[in-house]
Prior knowledge:
23 helices; Serine Threonine Protein Phosphatase 5, Tetratricopeptide repeat
Amino acid sequence: MTNEEDFDYEDDEEYEEEEFINPCQSLIDSKQYKKALECLKYHFNDNYWFDFYNSILLCYEKLEDYEGFFDYCIYLISNNISGDYFVEYSLLPVFTKYYGEKDSKIKLTDFLLNSSLPKDIKYKLIVESPSLSLPKDEEINYFQELVELNPKNIEAIINLGLAYYNSKDYSKAIETFEKALANDDKNVKIYLELAHVYQKLKDKKSELRYLLKALEISPNNEIVKFQMSLFHGTIREKTQEEINDNKQAKTAYNKIWGHYNKGIEETENQNYLKAIEEFTTAIALCKEHGFPEALKARGFVKIKMGNWEDGIKDIEFLTKDNPYEITKIINQGIEFYHSNQYNKAIRAFSVIIGVQPENDESYSWRGKVYLKMNEREKATKDFNKALELGRIGVQKIIYSLL
């Protein structure tokens, strides 16, 4: 969501090495929040928007001026200053405080949908935020637009098919999943989703055809085997051997998801080592299928622990079909930069460079981090690489280092 254009402000200005000093801090410290707001908005500087926005939102919250708080967030998003993380880190906590835990997510979704933001931005903010979800008809519209923009975006096509399935438009779901297969005929997930659709339509012949294809591609996939066993159990009387096979498959299936759910629970409790152990067990039980959900979850736990390299290895499939996740990591690196956690920022940008060597944004930001760390030689090297890759804005910074 938040990408190069969102943060170009620093590339467009002369680089300043002095640390940010909030000119309005004394007013905040003395709890003169109205005067502090006037002061902050008067002195607002794009080079230090990250530091200013924290103070401005703090003042609105202290004044319990939630309308001002929300309007300011929309202003930042509208002007490409902030990114999707605003939903999770700024907007949602305040909505929770203001409306209560039960209704906050619904209220925030409605607020974004009714905001003045462009349609594509508000959809992205909601769809790409783990805590929120679009209404079914809005979800279909959103994924339709994504597919129109990039007809080979497999994840978008699959999500569009699932949106049709959830709205019980099974003919559209079939048509959409078939389009996905035309782009990726080795994707087990697509065959399973088609089997689910035909199961709803009670078309046993078609359901079996797609299950067999999934099994052909991944013969040791426990989820496919479980679905196949359920299929056999619905079309005829089972033998004792088949009953035993079904029990074994169901036991394996329950174990896989049991370990995965336990991993999610341990993650929420910040027991990261135990979470990794649970996800690893789920992945091992799923054998060659790899269990993408568990791999992704394990990857993000490793990243939470600071192990960016191993985390990216777990979720490297995201670089192909879901560049948004890579952008999330870049945004995390930018947050580390602004909060002076320079070593963590270096790791974040270095990981992205490792999986996307042509990512000029990461070279540019890593150069800025190196400057903060007074490692001018490394900074110059990164800025020159960013310039070579087409990031023209770093020229001013390079000239200042000569």
